[in-house]
Amino acid sequence: MQRKGAVAAHERNMSAIIQWSDKLSLGIPEIDGQHKGLIDVINELWHAIVSRKDANYLLGILNKLEQYTFAHFTAEEAVMRVENYPRLRDHYDEHQKFIGHLKGTRAKIENGEEIALELLHFLTDWLVKHIQVSDKDYSNFIAERQRPKSIFARFFGSLRPQGARS
Ligand SMILES: [Fe+2]
Ligand SMILES: [Fe+2]
Q: Which of 48, 90, 125, 155 could form a disulfide with 53 if both were Cys (CB 3.0 to 4.6 A apart)?
């Protein structure tokens, strides 16, 4: 099945489970940059799983993914709060659901269980849908209020995952 907004790994590039495409762009470089960062770390985790790296190695990448996700979600929730975005509560709940799945993944690795690739597909599908629907909604809401472009730089800065190429 073709996944919306992203190209399945086997069709394009075996080193990635999810590829950035223009369909994922919100047109705001600071937010796009962080979404690319999330995709980079998910790909790193996928690559480690298919290369059968050990649990410690996987946990190191998962730590990075958790930290980066937390920083990104916190920035989004802060800008939505400041801008009085009316659907903040639902958006927050979606973020919590993703965090819950990352915690579940951590528990599995710590218990010595295999991480099924379906889980990685779930994370990538969640991310694609979340960006295209929910993140697009709040960024459009802010853009429609004609806020200065600097507002996004103020909240999103240029945070990159630890060890990522710029
Ligand atoms: Fe979000
Ligand atoms: Fe986001």
A: 48
Show me where the domains of the chain are located. 9-156
Q: Residue holding tokens 């990159």?
A: 160
* Ligand nearest to the backbone CA of 31: 2
Low-confidence ranges of the chain (pLDDT < 50): 1-12, 166
| Alpha carbon distance 50, 45 (integer Å) | 9
Taking the centre of ligand 1 as the mean of its atom positions, its distance from the CA of residue 90, in whole angstroms, is 10
Distance 47 CA to ligand 2 centre (A): 22
Tokens of 113: 């269980």
Q: How far apart are CA 16 and CA 25, in angstroms?
A: 18
Ligand of minimum distance to the alpha carbon of 137: 1
* Topology (CATH) of 9-156: Four Helix Bundle (Hemerythrin (Met), subunit A) (1.20.120)
